Amino acid sequence: MEWPKMTTLRLVEYFRTQVRQDPEVPSAVAAIRTLLEFLKRDQSETILGLRENLTQTIRRLEEADSSVAVSSGGELFLRFISLTSLEHPDLSQCKKVMVERGELFLKKISLSRSKVAKLCHTFIKDGAKILTHSSSRVVLKVLESAAADKKRFTVYVTESQPDSAGRQMADKLQNLNIPVTVVLDAAVGYIMEKVDLVIVGAEGVVESGGIINKIGTYQLAVCSKAHNKPFYVVAESFKFVRLYPLNQQDVPERFKYKADTLKAVEDLAEEHPMIDYTPPSLITLLFTDLGVLTPSAVSDELIKLYL
Amino acid sequence: MADCGEPDGPGNKDDITRSKNEGKELTKEEKQRLRKQKKHQKKQKERKNEKGPSETEKDKTPVSLLPPPQPVATQKAPSALPAPASAPIPVPASAPFHSSPAPSPADKPAKSKAELKAERRARQETDRAAKQPGSSSSGIKTKVPLSELNPVVKRLPEHVQVDDPAVVKRLAKKLERQQIPLRSDYGYKVSLFSHLHQYSRKAPLTQLLSIPSTVIHPSIVRLGLQYSQGIVAGSNARSVALLHAFKQVIRDYTTPPNEELSRDLVNKLKPYISFLNQCRPLSASMGNAIKYIKKEISNIPSQCKEEEAKTKLLTCIDRSSLVNNILCEAFEKSRKFRVIVVDSRPRLEGREALRRLVQRGISCTYVLISALSYILPEVSKVFLGAHALLANGYVMSRVGTSQIALVARTYNVPVLVCCETYKFCERVQTDSFVSNELDDPDDLMVTRKGKTQLENWQDVSSLGLLNLVYDVTPPDFVDLVITDLGMIPCTSVPVVLRVKNLDQ
């Protein structure tokens, strides 16, 4: 069946509508849905051409939304579908197999958030005081399932400037009837002695086992290490990315700022970065849909996923 | 079968020592005779060991079995002592045991055949049970080669048991069989490292070789000399030189009649490897190279003609220095950077690296390792080479590396280790004491303005000189390992080993 070919504009529009329609969906899943649509309508003659088109599409999506998750999700999608791409001699059959695998992949990762929540909520004990940073839908899901399990706990959320995402998180938690307090970013050191554990989400998990997350996470991790509080990270497996930063400045520029800033502004040194890098030595455990991992096990999983 | 070689014993030994002195290779029959002798002696030793613990249990059961070999054994014992070359001197503890039960068996009455059989079976069961949990007779700190009953027990490598006389004797016998001279240790060894070898550079192994020696190929002799004098140094250079020498060996090799290339060539390589090991202990990369070659050789099908087989082997061989290469390549890509080369005595290998970098036009600074904390504040990244990467993530490298990694960590400077995957090895080590290499202690002597300090260090009884070659860096100090497969964290070494094993 012949579908009209997707142009860049339509791609981005499709992506944005996905995100708008369902604010709960992770941006990577939306990106992958877009890619799947593109795949169905693609008209290239060879597999190489198909791959090239897909890589270009991923790049265009990254321009629309510069988060790490879109990039990693896209790359994983590409890998996942091309693993059996050479088996069938006929291109259309190949594409059919690819589309099927793509749908399978999509189904798997849509369930990943609930898998993570199931693993993590057992670590929250009754009467616990939890500290979290900015707004993360995975953390929200975890706290939701813990509350559903009839556990009593209180949450402290950092305000997380410059976009005050923490306040949105606080509203959502209040709707779930969880006692929540918003604290200033600067008050993390002050509040650390009161809390029992720290849970944060991640925008990307890097090869060394460290994470890339909203700016302020690194500070939080350093403080929790100084106070010997466990620092947990919850992330789905499609956020694993093949980067290896050694320090803050090794994180590529295209992730550090919002997509609009990258296009509009000339001198990026004037801008405030939106994310920072937390090294693996400060992280206690990572909860993913592949299981509960230590930071050094992340590399093993990455090798299995990518090689 | 065990007794057949006995009556010719002394006569055989003369023949063999004679042929050894002439430098000729042992003929096949002589080798077989030696092998039978060894087997018999080993059985005797085992019997004596078993007599030790089982003597207290039942005196009757060993009796019936022992009378036949007993008189021969008693004959062997006194003859064994004056012939130290070939006879395995039994573990000294069992020698007194040996003499005491000698009179007792003669007193006991003979038994019927069925009873003898039952007792023998019972004795075997007890022996098997005694061997399993590691019986007292099998040595306190060393592991005497256990029978095939315990394949799980791993032996300690011989080169870290130098202070155990039994192991040294075993090594000496093995070398004698392969007709390689044994290198003796030199100088006073620091007590914490007395379990390692310490050789002097002034006494190379080749001086002890008789001329002409047809056992060892001349290119291997040359290689051994290059290793022991330090002319070829550095793990990559050593492996490459080893492979070149093996190529020459394969080219000159001819299969003797009635022998298969795949088996005979591997056996020929064994004495070469022992010789090279004596000249300078093998490194992990060399070990991996040798394993690879042996595998290739044994995989050659038996129908393969000799010429074909040789060309096949040569082609499969054909396919620090590393850090230098990385820096030179980066410089060619017009990256602007400055290199600080840290060097240390006594080898001062940094000078060569410095020379090569300066020749390319890279701006360099040269410091000794004692100035490390002075220059680290201006360093952005530390690049280290590695000799081997162990399975628990520890990095084995030139001594001083772990010091640099430690100081760099306190200054929060990222430490990158560059290592090819062929240097990954399955060993596990957590400290630098267990397995290391002691270099010639005389290297530490310095001559300045005509005066050599420490010239007479051997005369001072309480003074020991320690010249270590390797040290081990924990994975917490290393941020990244760069390999030919990509960038991996230090703890992922076992994953790479697993993936590589699957490929092979």
Automatic annotation (TrEMBL), chain A:
<comment type="function">
    <text>Acts as a component of the translation initiation factor 2B (eIF2B) complex, which catalyzes the exchange of GDP for GTP on eukaryotic initiation factor 2 (eIF2) gamma subunit. Its guanine nucleotide exchange factor activity is repressed when bound to eIF2 complex phosphorylated on the alpha subunit, thereby limiting the amount of methionyl-initiator methionine tRNA available to the ribosome and consequently global translation is repressed.</text>
</comment>
<keyword id="KW-0648">Protein biosynthesis</keyword>
<dbReference type="InterPro" id="IPR042529">
    <property type="entry name" value="IF_2B-like_C"/>
</dbReference>
<dbReference type="InterPro" id="IPR042528">
    <property type="entry name" value="elF-2B_alpha_N"/>
</dbReference>
<keyword id="KW-0963">Cytoplasm</keyword>
<protein>
    <recommendedName>
        <fullName>Translation initiation factor eIF2B subunit alpha</fullName>
    </recommendedName>
</protein>
<dbReference type="GO" id="GO:0005829">
    <property type="term" value="C:cytosol"/>
</dbReference>
<dbReference type="GO" id="GO:0005851">
    <property type="term" value="C:eukaryotic translation initiation factor 2B complex"/>
</dbReference>
<dbReference type="GO" id="GO:0003743">
    <property type="term" value="F:translation initiation factor activity"/>
</dbReference>
<comment type="subunit">
    <text>Component of the translation initiation factor 2B (eIF2B) complex which is a heterodecamer of two sets of five different subunits: alpha, beta, gamma, delta and epsilon. Subunits alpha, beta and delta comprise a regulatory subcomplex and subunits epsilon and gamma comprise a catalytic subcomplex. Within the complex, the hexameric regulatory complex resides at the center, with the two heterodimeric catalytic subcomplexes bound on opposite sides.</text>
</comment>
<dbReference type="InterPro" id="IPR037171">
    <property type="entry name" value="NagB/RpiA_transferase-like"/>
</dbReference>
<dbReference type="InterPro" id="IPR000649">
    <property type="entry name" value="IF-2B-related"/>
</dbReference>
<dbReference type="GO" id="GO:0005085">
    <property type="term" value="F:guanyl-nucleotide exchange factor activity"/>
</dbReference>
<dbReference type="Pfam" id="PF01008">
    <property type="entry name" value="IF-2B"/>
</dbReference>
<keyword id="KW-0396">Initiation factor</keyword>
<dbReference type="InterPro" id="IPR051501">
    <property type="entry name" value="eIF2B_alpha/beta/delta"/>
</dbReference>
<comment type="similarity">
    <text>Belongs to the eIF-2B alpha/beta/delta subunits family.</text>
</comment>
